[in-house]
Design brief:
about 400 residues; alpha+beta; Thrombin, subunit H; eight-stranded mixed β-sheet; six-stranded antiparallel barrel; 11 helices; about 20% strand
C-alpha cells in the first residue's frame, strides 16, 4: 500500500470518529489536535478489537495505539522523502529546463474588446502554429496577439478548427522559440499523477503566470488537472514537466459544488479543470477568421440573451420577483413597460390588474425565449458552438415548459 493511502486511511478513520462523537454530543472538553488524535486512535483500537482485528492475541490496547501511531509516522516520513526526491529530480531534466526557458517567448496573450485569453506558439509535426481554444479565437475580432516580452504575433486570415474539440490552430511565420506538442499520450508514457504546469494569462490580467499541478485524469479527448487555472487561462498550454511537451490546452472549469450523493465526501474536488488533448484524431476544418468571428458573435449574443431570460424567469417563478432592472436593456427592456408604469406593487397578486399584467408579461417572456432559437441554430455551423448552443437551447425549452404551467 502506498504511503499516500496509508496516511489517508488513518486520517480518514480519525476524522470519522470525530464526526461520530460530534453527532451524539461531544463528551470531551476542548482538546488540542494532538490530544484529539490520541483519543481517536484509542477509539480506533477499541473498534478493531471489538470486530476481531486484534493483530495478535497478546497485543494490548496501549500497544495497538503505539503501533498505529508508529505506522502513521513512518508513512508521513516516507511521503516527505518521496516528495523531496521528486523536487530534487525535476531540475536535472534537460528537456523540462529547455521548455521552460522558452515559456515567455512562446506564450501569446490575447486581448480584445470581446474578451481576453491565452494561446501559444508550438511546433506540430514539423510546422509552426499559433494554438488556442476555438472559443478564444472566435471572440478575438480586433484583438491583439502579443508575447509577454512585447512581440506581436501576426496570425493571418485562415484557421483550422477541430470538429471534435475546442481547439484552433493557425499556421504562422515565426522564427522565435516554440513549445513542442505531444504526439502521443500512450507512446510517451504520460500517466495520471504526472506533474504539469499551466502557463497563461490568468484571469485576463495581461501577465504570464505559472500554475503547477498534476494530471488527475486522462480521457480520449481531454485531460483533467488540479493546476488551478482560471478564466483568462483558456488557451494556455498544459506542459508535462518531465518531458517538457505540451499535453493539452486549458479549456474549461466545471463547478461541482452541487455534489450528488455519489460524490459527497469523496476526493472529487468542488471545482474540476479540463483541457483538450493535442494528439489523436482531431479532424480539422479550414475556415476564414472572418467567418469564425461571425459565428462567435452569433453565439455570444444568444448566450447573453439566454442568461438574461432564464434569470428573469427563475426570479419570477421561484422568488416571486420581477427584475425590472432589465428595463434599460436595449433588446429586452420593452417587456417591462407595463410593469413599470401600471403595476401596483403594494397590492401584489390580490389585484386583478396586477395578475393580468403579469400574465401578459409571461406571454411576452415565452415569446422571447422562442424568438431567435431557429435563427441561431441555422447560423451556427462550427461544432463547438453547435454543442454549446444545444446545451443552452435545452435550458430554454425547460424554462418555457415551466412557464407554461406557472400560476400565481
Amino acid at each position: 500500500m502506498s504511503c499516500f493511502w496509508r496516511i489517508n486511511n488513518l486520517r480518514q478513520y480519525v476524522s470519522e470518529k470525530i464526526d461520530f462523537i460530534a453527532d451524539f454530543g461531544n463528551p470531551f472538553p476542548v482538546l488540542d489536535a494532538k490530544s484529539i488524535f490520541i483519543k481517536n486512535l484509542s477509539f480506533l483500537g477499541l473498534m478493531l478489537g471489538m470486530f476481531g482485528f486484534s493483530g495478535g492475541a497478546s497485543e494490548s490496547l496501549e500497544e495497538r495505539v503505539d503501533r498505529l501511531r508508529l505506522e502513521l509516522a513512518e508513512a508521513e516520513e516516507a511521503l516527505a522523502v518521496s516528495l523531496e526526491s521528486r523536487e530534487a529530480d525535476a531540475p536535472t531534466n534537460p528537456k523540462a529546463i529547455e521548455a521552460f526557458s522558452a515559456d515567455l517567448d512562446s506564450l501569446v496573450i490575447v486581448a480584445g474588446d470581446a474578451g481576453r485569453g491565452s494561446g501559444f506558439l508550438a511546433e506540430i509535426r514539423g510546422r509552426r502554429f499559433f494554438v488556442t481554444n476555438t472559443h478564444v479565437l472566435g471572440n478575438a475580432r480586433d484583438a491583439e496577439f502579443t508575447t509577454p516580452t512585447g512581440q506581436t504575433v501576426n496570425i493571418g486570415t485562415t484557421a483550422f478548427i477541430s470538429r471534435r474539440r475546442d481547439l484552433a490552430i493557425i499556421p504562422v511565420e515565426w522564427d522565435g522559440p516554440t513549445f513542442t506538442a505531444l504526439d502521443s499520450v500512450r507512446d510517451r508514457g504520460i500517466s495520471i499523477g504526472d506533474e504539469v504546469t499551466v502557463i497563461g494569462n490568468a484571469d485576463g490580467g495581461g501577465v504570464a503566470t505559472n500554475l503547477v499541478g498534476r494530471i488527475m485524469g486522462i480521457g480520449p479527448h481531454e485531460i483533467e488537472t488540479d493546476a488551478t487555472f482560471v478564466p483568462g487561462n483558456s488557451g494556455s498550454p498544459i506542459i508535462h514537466n518531465h518531458t517538457g511537451l505540451v499535453v493539452g490546452i486549458a479549456s474549461y472549469v466545471r463547478n461541482m459544488e452541487r455534489s450528488s450523493f455519489a460524490t459527497k465526501g469523496t476526493a472529487i474536488p468542488a471545482v474540476r479543470r479540463f483541457g483538450f488533448r493535442l494528439d489523436g484524431d482531431l479532424e480539422w476544418e479550414q475556415m476564414s477568421l472572418e467567418a469564425l468571428w461571425r459565428q462567435g458573435e452569433v453565439f455570444q449574443q444568444y448566450e447573453r440573451k439566454t442568461r438574461m431570460l432564464l434569470e428573469i424567469a427563475h426570479n419570477l417563478m421561484y422568488e416571486r420577483r420581477v427584475l425590472t432592472g432589465y428595463r434599460s436593456d436595449q433588446e429586452l427592456g420593452y417587456m417591462f413597460a407595463d410593469i413599470g408604469n401600471n403595476f401596483r406593487w403594494e397590492r401584489g397578486t390580490t389585484s386583478p390588474t396586477n395578475v393580468r399584467l403579469l400574465e401578459n408579461f409571461i406571454r411576452t417572456l415565452r415569446a422571447e425565449i422562442q424568438r431567435d432559437r431557429e435563427a441561431a441554430r441555422r447560423a451556427l455551423t462550427v461544432d463547438h458552438y453547435k454543442t454549446r448552443f444545444s446545451n443552452l437551447d435545452e435550458l430554454r425549452i425547460l424554462y418555457d415548459e415551466r412557464l407554461s404551467t406557472f400560476r400565481f
